[in-house]
Specification:
The radius of gyration is 18 Å and the shape is globular. By secondary structure, it is an alpha/beta fold. It has helices spanning 22-30, 32-41, 47-60, 65-74, 80-91, 107-116, 164-174, 193-201, 214-226; strands at residues 6-11, 96-106, 123-129, 131-133, 139-141, 185-189, 207-211. Helices cover 43% and strands 18% of the residues.
Length: 228
């Protein structure tokens, strides 16, 4: 077997690295009635657009940038095991590990949380929906793929705001010649949507390892270091 000197780890954010859904969390804390409205409308309004509208609503109610950032910093993020797992793997030199984040959350949510946990340098790149605070304090959120421009060509069910497959392919193209190990294993969290899709659809060409607690991710990541 060829020696593995470089490897790529691709992370989602909500319910994977973070032990919560960032979009829903903000409204559960700051506006529970809007959280209920989101649940009611999620089948009829594109998700990123719905969260953008909801952010406008809490801004109209007087919720501030400081309150949003404080709420994000309070969010159940990751257990100590997840922090140890990613930190040890990133810090190891045999092999060298690159982390890449692909998330349907947004740049403000992700960066605020990572910075609060001292993990702002973990990811080589974060590909997500763009967001920024306006001078008024409104958190302005947009789809990564502009609905008024060319759309992605995904045929496997990605949301209109982003095709993660196309984004991953573009990342690999940007980082040629690539990595000795990537895309040969999926870490699938139990009781989340991906588990059901894998069970129903099959067709995956990689090993699947299931996990429920972050301590199991730490175990797997430690194996990535110890085997090389």
């Amino acid at each position: 077997m060829a020696t593995i000197k470089t490897q790529l780890v691709v992370f989602d954010f909500d319910w994977s690295m973070a032990d919560q859904d960032t979009d829903r969390w903000i409204f559960e804390v700051l506006a529970p009635d809007i959280r209920r409205k989101i649940k009611t409308l999620k089948e009829s309004v594109q998700w990123t657009d719905l969260i953008a509208q909801s952010l406008q609503e809490i801004h109209a109610r007087g919720r501030t940038r400081e309150e949003i950032e404080h709420t994000l910093r309070q969010m159940p993020f990751v257990t100590p095991a997840m922090v140890r797992g990613v930190t040890n793997l990133k810090g190891g030199s045999n092999p060298t590990t690159t982390f890449f984040c692909l998330s349907n959350a947004n740049s403000v949510f992700i960066n605020t949380i990572l910075e609060s946990k001292g993990l702002q340098n973990l990811f080589e790149e974060i590909v997500t929906n763009p967001a920024e605070f306006e001078p008024s304090g409104l958190l302005k959120l947009r789809r990564r793929v502009d609905p008024n421009g060319p759309q992605h060509s995904c045929t496997v069910g990605c949301s209109p705001n982003m095709c993660k497959g196309e984004e991953l392919a573009a990342f690999l193209e940007r980082h040629k010649p690539g990595y000795d190990r990537h895309l040969d294993m999926v870490l699938c969290r139990r009781f989340r949507g991906l588990e059901g899709r894998i069970s129903r659809e099959g067709g995956h060409q990689c090993q699947v390892k299931y996990w429920a607690g972050a301590w199991e991710v730490e175990e797997i990541f430690n194996q990535f270091i110890e085997k090389n």
